[in-house]
Amino acid sequence: MADKITPRSVDYSQWFIDIVLNAKLADYSPVKGAMVIRPRGYAIWERIQAEFDRQFKATGHQNAYFPMLIPMSFLQKEKDHVEGFKPELAIVTHGGGEELEEPYCVRPTSETIIWYMYKNWIQSYRDLPLLYNQWCSVMRWEKRTRLFLRTSEFLWQEGHTAHETEKEAVEETMRMLGVYKDVAERYLCLPVIAGRKSEAEKFAGAVATYCIEAMMQDRKALQAGTSHFLGQNFGKAFDVQFQSREGRLEYAWATSWGVSTRLIGAIIMTHSDDKGLVLPPTLAPEQAVIVPILKKDSAPAVLAYCEKLLAELKASGIRAILDADDTQSPGWKFAEHEMNGVCLRIEVGPRDMAEGKAMVVRRDTGEKVAYEVAGLPATALGLLDAMQKNLYDKALAFRKENTKRVSDRAELLAFYGKDQGDEAGTATATGGFAEGLWCGDRECEAALKAETKVTIRCLPLEGQDHVEGKCCLCGKPAKHLAVFARNY
Q: Rounded CA gap, 164 and 100, in Å?
């Protein structure tokens, strides 16, 4: 209930953990850095997974599965790749009671083992493209973990495609970025900025990394998905050559792209409140709960009335439940279902039954209205649609309100609560997304990160056509428009 939730204004991090635990989405496991996803949390992941999977298949991709153990020599074939993941690797050195001839790593990502297999499957341009996706878990040995947001083991999908030409691979990279943006905004109600990562922030082994970035309620950024153009790096590392249309041997062009259970953390931190979980109706395990107000003489009739309404709601496609537990008070139930993020609460008492009505409360706004029971399923569907739109609009408005265009270093530092004479900075600074021009210099970018923990989240796809002026960090001629933020 709400008294189990630390208010956001008191401790935002604890608020997030309180919601995850009390809404029974996940729990801590005995394995350091790994979490147990409970049934309600997994139900949300299944809905996210289903929508992405639908779009992957609609764009011609097929699901496959590859081993979780990868020979260490595979990672060493692509220098940038192994260096990028080396600090996070979990290494298996023994199996069956014996030391292994070659250690295996538990997959941090699967480019290497997949491209080893692609060498066997690709001989001609006629074999291309290969458009494969894998649903699995990965292991990255994180030192500081947080449920859903950063765990050593997490669930995700990873797409890996091989192409005949550079143009096709670039188009695939951008197509999948578009799929991520569409699902995030339309289905998860997460407004995102699509852009390219700086060279310092790109994926290890990629030529270019593209991402979608969302703003959380504490005004930090969360990377919600990435799509990588890998060029011919893995094709060359694993000698994946094919005979071209002109009869020449050429290396295959590659992409990879992924989203993970981190999205559940993003949804919580974007939409929820101090009463508990708030979910888009598309994702809610329960879209409506009927809570009968039971009084001794009328209880059987009210229950029968509620059961009939429940059947009608389910018949209309609404995920509805009836809470007929008589061991808890209605007020306790109201708070518990608010905690769990049920979209609509439908209260029915003897008076409501007599008048042919039901009281409906929206989880997102708290609006409470008495509706005629006749036609209530259609009304409920309309309310769920309105809630879906409202959650997106509210999150987009919040991002806009907390985005500032900055022209120089002093303005950027002030936005993040640190003036140029302040060595420590201000822990309570609001910040948000800062938009500013950037010269493209890695040292310029690194100095900002070291000083403020603010990073370049992306170079947004929109707004790069007419970049004129000076870098907001160092004053040199600018090459890019950048979005800055502190991040998870």
A: 38
Spell out where 357-432 has E strands. 357-362, 368-372, 403-405
Report the alpha-carbon distance of residue 393 to residue 168 in Å, rounded.
35
Strands (E), 59-207: 62-63, 69-71, 91-95, 98-106, 130-139, 153-163, 193-196
Could you tell me which residues are beta bridge partners of residue 98?
A: 95
The answer to whether residues 251 and 117 touch, using CB atoms and an 8 Å cutoff, is no
- For residue 26, pLDDT beyond 50: yes
Domain 288-384 superfamily per CATH: Anticodon-binding domain (3.40.50.800)
Phi-psi region of 35 (alpha: psi -120 to 50; beta: other; left: phi over 0): beta
CATH topology classification for 2-271: BirA Bifunctional Protein; domain 2 (3.30.930)
Rg (CA), the chain: 26
Cα–Cα distance for residue pair 448/450, rounded to 1 Å: 6
Output phi, psi for 206, to 5 deg.
Answer: -95, 155
155-166 exposure pattern, b = at least 16 Cβ within 10 A, e = fewer: bbbbbbbbbbee
pLDDT digits (tens, 9 = 90+) for 397-428: 999 999 999 999 999 999 998 654 444 333 34
Domain ranges of the chain: 2-271, 288-384, 403-485
CATH number for region 403-485: 3.30.110.30
3-state secondary structure 143-166: CCCECCCECCEEEEEEEEEEECCH
Whole-angstrom distance, CA of residue 89 vs CA of residue 141? 6
93-108 pLDDT per residue, tens: 999 999 999 999 999 9
Beta carbons within 8 Å of 333's beta carbon, 6+ residues apart:
291, 323, 325
Reported for 268-273, long-range contacts at CB under 8 A and 24+ positions apart, including other chains, are: 268/16, 268/19, 268/20, 268/25, 268/148, 269/16, 269/216, 269/217, 269/218, 269/222, 270/189, 270/190, 270/214, 270/215, 270/216, 270/217, 270/395, 271/189, 271/364, 271/391, 271/395, 272/19, 272/341, 273/8
